[in-house]
Amino acid sequence: MPKRIALDYDDRELRIVVANCNGSKVQVTDAQVIPIPENGSVSEKLRAYITSEGLQKTETLVTIGRGKAELRELQLPPVPDDELPDMVRFQAIRSFASASERAIVDFLVTRRTNDNNTLIAAAVSPGDMDRVRELCKTSDLLPKRIALRPLSAASLYLRGQKTPPICVLIDLLNDDAEIVIARDGKVIFVRTVRLPSEARHRSGAIASELHRTMVACGETSTPGRIVVWGTESVHAGDIAAIKSTISCEDVQAVNPFDLVSLQIDRSALPEHIGRLAPLVGLLASDETAPETLIDFLNPRKKPEEEPDRVRRILMIAGPIAAVFLAGFFIYRQFAQWDRKIANATNEVNLLLPSAKAAEESIERTETIDQFLDGDVNWLDEIRRLAEKAPPSDKMIVRNISGTASIRGGGGTLRIVGAVTEPSVIDELEEALRDPNHGVVGKGSQEQKGQDTYAWTFTESVMISGETIRNTRYQRMAERIAEAESQAADEPSTATEAPAAEQSPSEAAPSEAQDSEDQEAEQQPSTPEQPSNENATDTAEVQA
Predict the structure, then answer these.
(1) How many CA atoms lie within 13 A of 167 on its CB side?
(2) Chain-centre distance of CA 27, in angstroms?
(3) What is the DSSP letter of 23?
(4) What segments bear the compositional bias annotation Polar residues (predicted)?
(5) 76, 157, 234, 293: which one has the fewest Cβ atoms less than 10 Å from its Cβ?
(6) pLDDT tens readout for residues 454-492
(7) Quick check: 76 and 84 in contact, CB under 8 A?
(8) How big is the chain by its Cα radius of gyration, in Å?
């Protein structure tokens, strides 16, 4: 059977248990409590023992006390088990006072519900872990686990005994008492308390701290059983004090070596054998119940997916086969692809002159369109004003002027007039405004002395270049449709292509000529403009 060493230490003593372990079977072969003198070295005492017993290169299980680890009870939302380690570590770094990004964090789930997961999380600094590793290294030991001491002792008892709903386990050390509360066989609370140095005050302090611990964990009912690790002869006073304070009848001392096989004489065991309970529990739980421990050397992590060898082979062989198969077909079709490429190249070369000519035609057409976008048909706009304006008994028009924007296209029709009341102006604006015409007014002003048309106004009606272009192309389409209809009715007399069949680029100059003719008809009412190219980029028409 493989041999393992479990060790624990503090400033005053070194505790060691050696056992042969095979699965759930533990046979203790040695148990030692070695005092550490003042200013003494734990490393020297351990090295001397290991050398004398010839236990070099032995797997070692180490327990560390509550004082070296920071514990917190956390409540987290229900998540899958593989996501729990990352969530616990993130919450521990935020909640723990001494935890950092480098801290080693492990946890033990104590309760699961549909609403949350309750767990005990513990964090230890990398420096403390390095000191434990160095201690093992100096004695030529192989550290396998570094576990939290209170949970190791609790695991020994809770796994092998039938316990009541609430059970309390107390491990009495030199100056400390480690109290573990379990509900339904699972640890729910861990607390370490400091004990008085004088022996006559220890029993009362233990009972008082036990009562405070029950209140701290929220258990108001009396524990069904209280276990003190050790023997009746050593802890008789402690048991009596606990019974009188907690009112629990089932208070018993439990010898940890009664729960495992013992291959040494019982008389050779130390007097305070209860202090060795965490080591015995760690040996018993190492292989059979590691999930009940908080192990800082092997903290719980997100499980890594084991590689599927068959899948990996298929993933490697599949692409290789596909490459060879694809290469075979590509080789066969190279010639056909070359012919297709050559044909496509010839087609492209044949289409390039036509594409270039089309681009030039589009550019010319766009230049003409930009010029014609500033050719506003003012007669249409004046006719629209006459149709939509309120009647003459409400409004009169005193001045109409049109300004065309040659660069941006479109124009602005400026209307100056008078109305009988301001509401007529709103009526006018509402009538003239549509998706193609924007209306902006400069307000109204009352003219004193006027009886009927007492309110003057100035309104600007904006026509965009896009609107003018859409209207022009709509009329061109109507003319083309009309010409095609006439050609269909008189096929014999159609010796020339009608003007409506011309392309937009050819029809645009005709449209420009029509606009120039209209502008020439309106020109008498327009003030003469100076011929200066840089003077303005707009043309104004007044009526």
Answers:
(1) 20
(2) 51
(3) T
(4) 524-543
(5) 234
(6) 889 999 999 988 888 888 888 889 999 999 999 888 765
(7) yes
(8) 50
